[in-house]
């Protein structure tokens, strides 16, 4: 008899791969400082494998529905061998322009589904359920309004610079998204920041979706002919042009969290001692060690 597929990943996987040491966290640290980078890792439960960033899709009940592994480099761009060789000596603005071109043309290949994490770690029967990145923040920060974007990077930069919002990401282009993915936002007010190509499409979604109230920002309409593609580009560019106004000192990322898999309770205690926010996640999600 064929075994039934499963649609969640054990939360202990999030604990096992929790880390401040991915290249993208290095980028956040150099841009915004160690304290803010640490907050982002803790809030979004970011992981690391071989320098790549693990972006888990965690529900408000603490269930892990999948996610993506994205190989950002230390400049914050998705890795691409030939593109990285081009951008190494470019200014930030020129490098972002090349990065935008690569993203537009699909010239990157370092984005993987979470079920490719590593052989043996994810049950081979696992089938990812479409979900919103950052959805668990509804329980962590229930009073914050929701800001929804498409790209994970835009959500993380938004959270760095505009932490008064719960920043979430669909993780895919609107045309590839099942609108039922938005069902967990039922009854919520959501501000959508489309890319500079999807403004009218998101306005149509706002009309079609009746289970939550969607407002669509028109900010990207002012950048139709610019290289900046999403709100993350705008926020980061503005931050850089103003010289950065965050007082947090910029330091090297903290030491990677070392997590022991067994015995489980000892490992969990070690995690909490080294990263108290994991304990907060467990408390808020009412998780148990099994």
Q: Could you please describe the fold and organization of this structure?
A:
α2 (23-32) packs across α3 and α7 (152-161) packs across α9. The chain starts with 11 loop residues before the first helix and ends in a 5-residue tail after the last helix. It is an alpha/beta fold. The chain is globular and about 50 Å long. It contains eleven helices and eight strands. The chain has a four-stranded antiparallel β-sheet with strand order 1-2-3-4. It has a four-stranded parallel β-sheet with strand order 6-5-7-8. The model is unreliable at 253-268 and 280-290 (pLDDT under 50).
Order of helices and strands: HHHEEEHHEHEHEEHEHHH
Q: Roughly how many Å is the radius of gyration?
A: 19 Å
Arithmetic mean pLDDT: 79
Largest sheet: 4 strands, antiparallel
Extended strand count: 8
Helix residue percentage: 25-40%
Report the portion of residues in β strands.
5-15%
Q: Runs with pLDDT <50, length 5+? A: 253-268, 280-290
Distance between the termini: 27 Å
Strand order, main sheet: write it out.
1-2-3-4
Structural class: alpha/beta
In DSSP terms (H or I, runs of 4 or more residues), the helix count works out at 11
Shape: globular
